[in-house]
What does this fold into?
Amino acid sequence: MANRTLPRLLQAPAVIMLLLWMLVPLGMTLFFSFIRYVLNSLRRPEWTTPSIENWRGLGNYKYVLDAKDFWFAIQNSVFIVVSILIFTVILGLLIAVLVNRSFPGRGIVRVLLISPFFVMPAVNAVLWINMILDPVLGLNGLAVAGINDLVVGLRELPVIGQFFSMWPELKPISFRASQTSAYAVIMMVTWQWTPFAVLIFMTSLQSEDESQKEAAMLDGASAWSQFINLTVPHLARPIAIVVMIQSIFHLSLYAEIEIVSRGNGNKNLPYLIGEFTSNNIGAASATGIFAVILANIIAIFLLRMVGKSLMD
Amino acid sequence: MAAVAQTTPLSRILWPALAWTIALIFFFPIFWLVFTSFKTDADAVKPEHLFFFTPTLENYANMTENYDYWRFAINSVITATFATAFALAVGVPAAYAMAFDPSRHTKDILVWMLSTKMLPAAAVLYPMTFLTKNILGLFDTHFLIIVVLCLINLPIVIWMLFTYFKEIPKDIIEAGKMDGVSTWGEIKDILIPLAWGGIASTALLTFIFCWNEAYWTVRLTTIDAATLSKLIEGNRAPEGLFFGRLSAVSTAAVGPIVVLGWFCQKQLVQGLTFGAVK
It folds into this structure.
C-alpha cells in the first residue's frame, strides 16, 4: 500500500465535521430521552437541568407511546407521505411519458414544469393557503362564489331556470380545519414534487432501449401495452428511488405544516417534536428517536440501492 | 419511434396540446403569485379586479418599509454563499481523494456520509437549540447558519463532485504526479480546470438548497441571521389584507432561485438521486 496519509488528510475535515454533526446532537437526544427533563416546573425544579440523577429509563418512551398525539402524528405522517407518493408517482409517470416525445416548444414546457420545485417551501405554503385555497378571498372562494352567482343568474331564465332552482348553493371548503389542512399540505407538496418525479423519470426514459420498443411496435403491440410491458419495468428502479427519497424528505416535512396547520391539530412527527420541545424535552427526545428509527428503515433500502450503483 | 407514434394528425395536435396544458397548470400558481404582486392590497381581494386592474409597482417599492425585505435577503445571500463556498472548500479535496486514491473504505464512507443526510432534523431540534444557545452562544448568528447549511449539504456536495471527478481519466492526474506537481497544484491546475462544469453546477445546486432551507433557518434564528424563509414564515397569516404586498415579497424571495433552477435541471437529478439514476 502506497502512502495513505495524504488522501486521509484530505478527507479528514469532511469526515470529522459530519461525524460531530451526527454524533453530538444525536447523542444528546439519546441521553435526554432517558432522563426526566422539562424546561419549566414549579413543582419539581430539579427536573429543569439535564442530569443523570433524573434517570427515567424507558419512562419517556412509555409516556410517548401512551400519548394519543403520538399515534395520531404517526398515522398522519404516514397518511400525508403515502398520499403525496401516490400522486407524484402517477402524475410524474404520465407527464414524463407525455413530455418525452418531441413537439414544438418542448423546452419551454420543461422549464414551466420544473419551476415549482425551486419555490421555497415557506412561499409555497403561504401562496397556496392564502391566494389559492382561502375559502373567501382565494381563488377557491372566488370560484365557488362565481358559480353560485352564475346559478342564481340562470334561475331567471325561462324553462331551464326551473332546473337550476333545484341546485344547492355551493359552500367553499375551508382548508384550515385539521383534516382539510392535511389535504392542503398534500396538494401543495404534490405540486412541488411532481416536477421532481417527472425530471427523474424523463432522465431514465432517455436511456430506455429504443430498439426493443421498435421491435414491439413491429409486432403490433399497442402503445398501452408497450407502456405497461416495457416502459414501466424499465422505470422500476427510478420509481423506487423517487419513493424512497421523497419518503425521507416528507417524513420531516415541517414548514408547510407549521404555516398551514399551526394550532389546528393537524400534526406530523416533526411538528409533534416541536410541540414537546416547548416544555417536555424528555418526551421530545424519545419521539425524536422514534423518528430516527422510522427514517432509518427507509434509508437502509435507499442506501443499499445507491451503494450498489456507486462503483460502476 | 416518434415518427410512428405521431402518424395520425389527431395525436400530432392532441399530445402536445395536453403537454402544454399540464405545463401551464403547473406553472399557474407561480404566475398567479407574480400577477397578484402587481395589484394593490385592495384590488387583490376584489373579484371584479381578478383579471383586470391597473398594475402598480407600489408593493415592490414598499417592500423595505413593509417587511424589511433587504435585511432578510442579504442574510439569505450571505448564508447561502458562504455555506456553498465552505462546503466546496471541504468537499473538493475529499472528493478528489476518494475519486483518485480510493481505499477499501471509500464506498462505505460515501454511503455513511449520505446516511447523515437522512437523519430527521426534528430529532435533534432541542440539542441544537441547547448547544447553540447555552453552550456555544452562537444562536441566531450568521456563522451558525453557515455551518449548519454547509453540514446538511456536504454529503450531496461530496457525492456530486465524486461522480464528476470519476469521469476524469486517472492518467491525467497520474501524469501530474510524475511531473512532481504538488497535491495542491494538482487540484488547482489540473482538477479544477477539468471539472469546472461539474463544480459550478454543484455550487449552483447547493446554493439553491441553502436558499430554500426552511427548518434550521427558522428554528435557529430570531432576527439577526434570519433568512427569507423566516421572513415568509413569520408573515404566514395575512388574513387577506395584504395579498398584494405578500405576493411581491414572495416573488422577490423565489424569483432569482427559480430562474437559477432552470439552468441546473440536469444536475438536479444527479444531486438528488446521488447518481443512482442515469
